[in-house]
């Protein structure tokens, strides 16, 4: 491990960005958070003396360059609306141009399992073919290929860290969030089915320390690596555990593929869930032994502990208004 330079989190305001920020601050490292909205960044990071807040326009390479000045490592967490995945590759191209112009040495893309398509083995290692059958998978593949092709050019080293689905306290964009909200308030859990297939989830607070370590591990770059969850669980088991902890009777409304198709007539995001529903019905479970060989054992929160913490997070929030 080496002395660590300054890290910038591009698209910092989401769940994973906040987890990485916590890990950087815990390591006593100053970092920069970069996003479109100063108010969102102030709300998330304004309390942290280690955080420097910078706004940018990811569509403008000059803005990327300005935001990246003085950074050693960029961590890319930029999201796009679920029905606009075609934006991923062009945004990445502009970011790479801006990072090169600023002389950034390292880039970590936080990636997904989408580029693999359907799993061809019980456990998926980094050797698994990247042959996506979905539009979203193809866009994410194009994005990460840009990142991997940039490795070794203009002084930049690149890495893709691939994560499964994630969950944690206050994380509304998790497929498990409906179970925690329902259990916390004794209402019906809104779930996307099927819910009896084993599935892998990473607990968001576990991600930050891994990324912090990778920012100062030069030998990690030039490839993609997996961070896996602590085994598998079914969505039904998560809901059962959460409702039992909360002392409520389990109540669920499960939207399977046919229901998603109907909801998609009225809601473009629901329409997009249909394409990716194969990940709910066919397990894709990552093997992260390559990462553990590189950086040593990884602390992983058990599902029992993670469910308890996520439920506490949901219980501290007011009941969501569902019209």
Distance between the termini: 51 Å
Instruction: Give the number of DSSP strands.
Output: 11
Order of SSEs, N→C?
Answer: EHEHEHEHEHEEHEEHEHEHHHHH
Spatial sequence of strands, sheet with the most strands = 3-2-1-4-5-6-10
Shape: globular
- Stated plainly, the CATH topology of the largest domain is called Rossmann fold
Count of discrete alpha- or pi-helical segments spanning 4 or more residues: 13
Radius of gyration: 19 Å
- Main beta sheet strand tally, sense and closure: 7 strands, parallel
Low-confidence stretches: none
Family: Belongs to the NAD(P)-dependent epimerase/dehydratase family.
Domain NAD-dependent epimerase/dehydratase: 10-214
Protein name: Nucleoside-diphosphate-sugar epimerase
InterPro entries: Epimerase_deHydtase (IPR001509), NAD(P)-bd_dom_sf (IPR036291)
Give your account of this protein's structure.
This protein has two domains: 186 residues, NAD(P)-binding Rossmann-like Domain (Rossmann fold, 3-Layer(aba) Sandwich), CATH 3.40.50; 99 residues, UDP-galactose 4-epimerase, domain 1 (Alpha-Beta Complex). With 323 residues, the protein is an alpha/beta fold. Helix 6 packs parallel to helix 8, helix 8 packs across helix 13 and helix 9 packs antiparallel against helix 10. It has a seven-stranded parallel beta sheet, sandwiched between helices. Strands 7-9 form a two-stranded parallel ribbon. Helix content is 39%, strand content 15%. The protein starts with 6 loop residues before the first strand and ends in an 8-residue tail after the last helix. It comes from Paraburkholderia phenazinium. Pathway: Bacterial outer membrane biogenesis; LPS O-antigen biosynthesis. Belongs to the NAD(P)-dependent epimerase/dehydratase family.
């Amino acid at each position: 491990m080496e002395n660590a330079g300054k890290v910038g989190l591009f698209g910092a305001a989401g769940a994973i960005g906040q987890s990485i920020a916590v890990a950087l601050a815990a390591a006593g490292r100053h970092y920069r958070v970069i996003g479109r909205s100063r108010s969102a960044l102030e709300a998330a990071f304004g309390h942290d003396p280690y955080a420097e807040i910078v706004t940018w326009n990811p569509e403008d390479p000059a803005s990327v360059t300005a935001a990246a000045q003085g950074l050693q490592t960029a961590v890319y967490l930029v999201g796009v609306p679920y029905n606009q995945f075609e934006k991923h590759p062009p945004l990445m191209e502009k970011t790479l141009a801006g990072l090169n112009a600023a002389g950034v040495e390292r880039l970590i893309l936080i990636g997904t399992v989408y580029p693999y398509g359907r799993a061809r083995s019980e456990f998926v290692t980094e050797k698994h073919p990247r042959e996506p059958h979905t539009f979203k998978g193809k866009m994410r593949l194009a994005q990460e290929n840009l990142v991997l092709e940039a490795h070794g050019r203009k002084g930049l080293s690149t890495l893709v860290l691939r994560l499964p689905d994630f969950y944690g306290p206050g994380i509304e964009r998790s497929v498990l969030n409906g179970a925690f909200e329902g259990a916390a308030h004794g209402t019906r859990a809104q779930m996307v089915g099927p819910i009896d297939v084993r599935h892998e989830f990473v607990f968001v607070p576990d991600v930050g320390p891994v990324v912090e370590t990778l920012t100062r591990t030069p030998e990690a770059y030039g490839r993609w690596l997996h961070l896996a969850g602590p085994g598998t669980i079914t969505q039904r088991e998560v809901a059962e555990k959460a409702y039992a902890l909360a002392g409520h009777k389990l109540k669920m409304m499960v939207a399977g593929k046919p229901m998603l198709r109907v909801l998609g007539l009225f809601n473009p995001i629901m329409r997009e869930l249909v394409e990716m529903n194969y990940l709910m019905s066919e397990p894709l479970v990552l093997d992260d032994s390559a990462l553990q060989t590189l950086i040593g054992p990884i602390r992983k929160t058990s599902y029992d502990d993670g469910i308890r913490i996520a439920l506490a997070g949901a219980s501290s929030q007011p009941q969501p208004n569902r019209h």
